[in-house]
Every structure is written in structure tokens, then in C-alpha cells.
Design brief:
This protein is an alpha+beta fold. It is about 15% helix and about 30% strand. It is built from ten helices and 42 strands. The strands form eleven sheets. Strands 7-8-9-10-17-14-13-12 form an eight-stranded antiparallel sheet. Helix 4 crosses helix 5.
Length: about 700
């Protein structure tokens, strides 16, 4: 300030001190005992963005009536309450005098630490120290980049009345600081989430996705035991998303029967968990919810609202509107799309064509969609474009409908005494605020338990237990596992959260891909054990009427259980775990004659034959680097041979010679011939298959 030495206002906690300069710049953030500086450089603590996009930063700050007033020269001021709590610093936006503000950034700084960046925790850290910025209100948006941490409010949810907390210091003290923040602030508390996630024993347990039918509950318990999974995860158990009554086909006697199944699982020493789609309100054929049909709720989120220009008769298929339709309209109703559903009064309408030239209109309309009643509507009525994702609609986050949905989810969860809830489809709410509100509403009504979700927003960290679940691959399985394990292994440091190596799929062979083999499962199990991560397993069924399930599912789950039992018991040393963790390194776990489990390194080599072996174009020679041992070999076809659902005969073992009919490429000849028996008696005949391409392209 004009060359004069600035005054620095200091705010100190047990673990760090925060220096705010007279020119409103964050001057320092220092670790208490060591004095280590945790900021890279100073930036203004706050700034505003006006409705015209212009940004303003304060010129100075001074104490004012127990608050701190940040003055924006000639424009107005912002009052913040900055309080030193015992273990953290609290900053709240109290009052703003500047007009036409669209965004208030009331806390920002540039962390020095770059080794780990956890956006869910809001934490920048290295092995020794960390700096954490936590939102303390659903109104707060955040952004965490290596070069800037920010927290802000917007005009839509209210510019003032929100707060953040800052925790900083040695890594060993971070969790205790965040526990203190959780206890003192109006945020969700979970003994299995947030600051407590790393010490919860429940968080170490894995689970099996189970489309449970009451008649099969004993078999589900058995498959859970084989895989040493701690939870049986009830999936696709609902009749409709929204009211969440038990699916009649699976539980003919309703909720009492579902509760009895849960009791049986607990009696077997296992736990139960529940799958939900968070804010989804179903409009699928298998279960259109009562909040959709026959009368759609007025609290369903509308992405856009329009005004009808003329009366809409019962038979009208063209709906003219005053406003030009937005660009994000879809013309079809699909799982991942925005949908084509309009709400007009108490009727739902599906359009199939849009006119964005005057007269603006939705055309080729299907009236009375989803079982609603076609009605006449007056000119000037509202035409709402409903938000759709995952074949579902969504409630306004602050509505009575959202409250009712949360109550229905919690009622099933609590009645069945569940121990975990998965908030799937959370991102379908389509906004940060709506997603956070819906998760907080549901969680507040639950009787405890582990929490996971498909969305990892910052405000959900308080209640979230584990990070890392991803959809599983059908090709390149082992390389995917390497990538997944590398990513999941940092969550304990980056977000103070336990990793999760699901959703692992034991998929069987389908038209588009081959089934999973045991060596791929064991590769996954080894890497999972190497980082001591729980997992979740899907594409599991106990009924033979599901042809998409791997035919070796019982064998594979038994194999998986060997590794999972050792992991839960922490049977192997950290040194052994570190050796198992290398990419492309393979090991097998086996029980020795002396009763001890032991890992054996395994060398895997593979070769893709592409030439004419008979002409010496593609001879594969491989030398065993280990001691002499039996050879284990798998011959794998590169492509499936199904067409139109029928198996096509390529080779007839009884008639092996000659040309084989094929239609995939006109320049390719496919031949087979019978070879002499192997020298060892009883091994049978061998067949050679040859493909020759006479064309110029592969």
C-alpha cells in the first residue's frame, strides 16, 4: 500500500496460523510447530463476479463490528466472519453491499503442496503435510486445482449465509482437525464416512450385487460366503423407482418377505446393503411410479418452460409455443439422453419433431404418454420440458416431493436394517446443488451405515465411505486392473477415503465379447489384495435361467474368496503386498501341504498367430525362465462365430479335410486337415486350421 509496510492480521489454531494482509491478500498459511509455509503465493482472499462478467477484487480489509470488512473501492463492501476455532479456521459470508453480483468467491488461496490432490476432500497434500478447504453449506460451490482453491456462492442459491472451514498442518493431525470440524458444524456425520472413513471396519468389507429373489436367498448366502464377501447387496429389488416398494416378482409377499430375507442373511453372519438410484423417479415399462402416472407430480424438475400460443385440443398433435425451443431437446426417449417428454398440466406428452422457426412448435406428439390422461389445455398454459436421465424423472431438490422420496428410501433401508446404501444415478439430478441436497436428505433419515455413490461431489465427502468403483471392462482386463489399482491406491492419501476396486464383473461370453477366465480373476484378486482394497462383484446369478452369467461363477467366486479371506485377515506382510502391486506382474495364491498360504510368481506369455505356420511364417518359441514344470496353455479364438443367434458350424471333426464355407471375406480360404496322433498313446488326433488371404488387404 504505497510502499508502506502492511499490517498482517493473524488467525491461529493449534495446528496452523493464517495471515491476512491489509490489502486483503492471503499472506501466509504456516504449520504451527515446524513453521513450514503451505502456500505458494498470495492472492486476494475474496472477489466478486458481476452479472456483466466483470470481476472485482477488494482494495483493503479492516476489522468492523466483530467482522472483517473487505472494501471494493467505489463499489461497496463484503463482510466476512473469520473465526479461529481450536483445530480449524472458519470463514462465513455475512453481508454484501455490492449490487448486481452473480458470484461471490469468499475464500481462495494457492496451496504449495502438489503431490496429492483430492477434490472430494478439498485437500492438497504431500507425505508430510496438507491443506484442506471444506464447504460447510449446501449453498457453497468449490473448485480445486493445483494452482488455486476456491469456494463461492451464487445468486441462485443466495450469496451470503454460507461458510467454509480450513484445516492445515501435519498429515498425522489432519483427520483429527476434520473430525473437530464435523462435530462443530451443521454437516452430516457418519462413523463410516468423511474423517472416519479410514478407521471403519465396515469399510473393509466387500459386497456382491444380487438380484435377490426370496426363493433363492440360501444360494445367495452361499455365494457370498464363497467369495468371502461381507455384504449381500440387494440390487434391482424395487417395483418402481420413487416409491420403492419391493418388486413383486422377487418378493411375492412384499416387504415382510424382503425383511425375512435380510434377517436370514444376518443370521448367516453377513450384512445387507441396498442399491438405490437416489433422486430417480421411474418411468420404465417395468415400473412407472405413482409420481409419474396417472398424475405427474408438479414438483418434477423442468429443464425449460414454454408458453402455449393457442388452445390444445384432445386430438392435437402439434403444440405451438411462444419461445424458441432450447438446443438441448432430444427427439427420442433413451437411457442416457435428455428425453422428449413435456408436462402440460396433468398430462405427459412425447414429441418426435421440433420446429425452431416460427411458429415454434413440438410436432408428431403422442398424447397421454406414460399412462397419463389426455386433456384439453388453454392458450397461455405452461409447457414444461421434463429433465430425464436413466429412464427417470427427478424431483425439485427443495420440494415436498424430494422429501417424500427420501422418506421412502429410508423406510425400506431402516425396516430391513441395512448396513450400506449405494446412491447410484446421483448425477442424474444434473446440478451440483440438487445432487448434494438429495444425498443429504436421504442420509439424514438413515440409521447409519456405509455410503457409496456414483457421484463424488465435495459436499458429500462428510458421509461418503469409499472411492474408486468403476464399470468393469470386457477387453484388456489385466491392463484395466493395473490402471484401476494405481488410481485407487492414492485415495487414502488424496481424499482420506478408503479405496474400492469394484464393480468387478464376472461376465460370461456374449455376442460382443468372450467370457472372463480364471487367470484374469486371479490377476484382479492379487492387485486388490496388494492395496488392501474392498471390492464389489457384479454379473453374478445363482439361477441357471440367466444365460449371460459366466458358467464358472461358483468356481470363480470360490477362487476369489481365497484372496479375500487373506486380505481381511491381513495375512501377508506389507512387504509382500508391495511386491504383488507391480504392473504386469502375476502371482498365484495356493494352499501348501503344511497349511500355509503362499504366493507363487507366474510368467505369462502370449502370442497372436497371424501367418502360415506350415511355411514357417509364424513359429512361436518360448523358453521357460523358471524350474521345470507342467505346461499350461490356453488356445483362444479371436472372434465369436455366432450369426443371427444361431451357432455356425465351421469345422466338422468327423470330416476334417477340405475347404470350409465362410462368408466374412471373399478373398480368404479356410482349410483344415487331420494330423497324426501325438507320440504319447491315448492323446487322440490333432487338427490343423489354416486361413489364407488372397487379397491385398488384411
Amino acid at each position: 500500500m504505497d510502499g508502506k509496510k502492511q499490517r498482517i492480521y493473524e488467525f491461529a489454531t493449534e495446528d496452523f496460523s493464517f495471515g491476512l494482509a491489509e490489502d486483503a491478500t492471503v499472506h501466509w498459511l504456516r504449520q504451527a510447530k515446524s513453521g513450514r509455509e503451505l502456500l505458494q503465493r498470495g492472492v486476494p482472499l475474496c472477489k466478486v463476479v458481476l452479472q456483466n462478467g466483470k470481476e472485482l477484487v477488494p482494495a483493503e480489509v479492516a476489522s468492523h463490528d466483530a467482522l472483517w470488512r473487505f472494501s471494493f473501492a467505489g463499489h461497496g463492501w463484503l463482510d466476512l466472519r473469520i473465526e479461529s476455532k481450536k483445530r480449524y479456521l472458519r470463514i462465513a459470508a455475512v453481508e454484501l453491499s455490492l449490487p448486481d453480483v452473480s458470484k461471490l468467491i469468499f475464500c481462495q488461496f494457492v496451496p504449495l503442496l502438489r503431490q496429492y490432490l483430492g477434490k472430494m476432500a478439498g485437500l492438497a497434500s504431500d507425505e508430510e503435510s496438507g491443506v484442506c478447504l471444506r464447504s460447510l453449506s449446501l449453498k457453497v460451490d468449490t473448485d480445486f486445482r493445483k494452482d488455486l482453491f476456491q469456494a463461492w456462492t451464487t445468486e441462485s442459491t443466495g450469496l451470503t449465509g454460507a461458510a467454509v472451514g480450513i484445516a492445515a498442518g501435519s498429515r498425522e493431525n489432519l483427520v483429527d482437525m476434520l473430525k473437530a470440524m464435523t462435530h462443530n458444524e451443521p454437516v452430516p456425520f457418519s462413523p463410516h464416512g468423511g474423517a472416519w472413513a479410514g478407521e471403519s471396519r465396515l469399510n473393509r468389507g466387500s459386497y456382491v450385487f444380487a438380484d435377490v429373489e426370496a426363493k433363492d436367498i440360501d444360494r445367495w448366502i452361499e455365494i457370498c460366503r464363497r467369495g468371502a464377501c461381507s455384504f449381500l447387496h440387494f440390487h434391482f429389488w424395487w417395483q418402481s423407482l420413487g416409491h420403492y416398494s419391493p418388486r413383486k416378482e422377487h418378493f411375492p409377499a412384499g416387504l415382510p418377505q424382503m425383511k425375512a430375507c435380510c434377517e436370514k442373511v444376518r443370521a448367516a453372519g453377513l450384512r445387507t446393503s441396498l442399491h438405490t438410484l437416489t433422486g430417480c423417479i421411474g418411468c420404465e415399462e417395468i415400473g412407472i411410479d405413482e409420481w409419474v402416472s396417472p398424475t405427474p407430480s408438479a414438483d418434477l424438475i423442468a429443464l425449460h418452460s414454454y408458453t402455449a400460443t393457442r388452445k390444445i385440443d384432445l386430438q392435437e398433435t402439434v403444440i405451438e409455443i411462444e419461445e424458441c425451443p432450447a438446443k438441448d431437446h432430444d427427439l427420442v426417449y433413451t437411457y442416457s439422453g435428455n428425453g422428449n417428454v413435456l408436462r402440460i398440466g396433468q398430462e405427459l406428452v412425447q414429441y418426435q419433431e421440433i420446429s425452431r422457426e416460427k411458429p415454434y412448435a413440438f410436432k408428431q406428439c403422442i398424447r397421454g404418454a406414460f399412462g397419463t390422461r389426455p386433456s384439453e389445455h388453454p392458450a397461455g398454459c405452461k409447457v414444461d420440458y421434463l429433465q430425464q436421465r436413466y429412464l427417470a424423472f427427478y424431483p425439485e431438490p427443495d420440494s415436498a416431493l424430494a422429501d417424500a422420496l427420501a422418506e421412502h428410501v429410508a423406510a425400506i433401508y431402516n425396516d430391513c436394517k441395512m448396513d450400506m446404501l449405494y446412491f447410484d444415478g446421483s448425477e442424474g439430478m444434473r446440478s451440483r446443488y440438487a445432487t448434494d441436497v438429495m444425498r443429504w436428505k436421504i442420509f439424514a433419515l438413515l440409521n447409519g451405515g456405509v455410503s457409496e455413490a456414483s457421484e463424488h461431489g465435495h459436499n458429500s465427502w462428510w458421509l461418503h465411505s469409499r472411492l474408486g468403483a468403476m464399470d468393469s471392462p470386457v477387453w484388456g482386463v489385466k491392463r484395466f486392473v493395473d490402471m484401476h489399482a494405481k488410481r485407487a491406491s492414492v485415495y487414502r492419501k488424496a481424499d482420506l477415503m478408503e479405496p474400492q476396486m469394484g464393480w468387478w464383473s464376472l461376465h460370461g461370453a456374449k455376442r460382443d465379447f468372450r467370457g472372463q477366465f480364471s487367470d484374469e480373476l486371479e490377476y484382479f484378486a492379487v492387485k486388490n489384495l496388494s492395496i488392501d482394497s474392498p471390492m464389489s462383484v457384479q454379473t453374478v446369478a445363482v439361477s441357471e435361467r440367466f444365460p449371460w452369467v459366466n458358467g464358472r461363477v461358483w468356481e470363480l467366486m470360490t477362487l476369489l474368496g481365497w484372496y479375500e479371506r487373506m486380505r481381511l485377515a491381513r495375512y501377508f506382510s506389507e512387504k509382500t503386498q508391495q511386491r504383488l502391486s507391480g504392473e504386469r506382474t502375476e502371482f498365484r495364491l495356493r494352499l501348501m501341504d503344511d497349511g500355509h498360504w503362499r504366493f507363487f510368481p507366474m510368467t505369462v506369455a502370449k502370442h497372436r498367430f497371424s501367418g502360415n505356420v506350415a511355411k514357417g511364417e509364424d513359429i512361436w518359441t518360448w523358453n521357460n525362465p523358471e524350474a521345470e514344470q507342467p505346461l499350461r496353455l490356453r488356445l483362444e479364438a479371436l472372434y465369436g462365430v455366432q450369426r443371427d443367434g444361431q451357432t455356425e458350424l465351421l469345422l466338422d471333426w468327423a470330416n476334417p479335410g477340405g475347404e470350409v464355407s465362410q462368408e466374412s471375406a471373399g478373398t480368404v480360404e479356410l482349410h483344415s486337415n487331420l494330423l497324426p496322433e501325438m507320440p504319447e498313446p491315448g492323446t487322440g488326433a490333432r487338427m490343423r486350421i489354416q486361413a489364407r488371404n488372397h487379397g491385398s488387404a488384411a
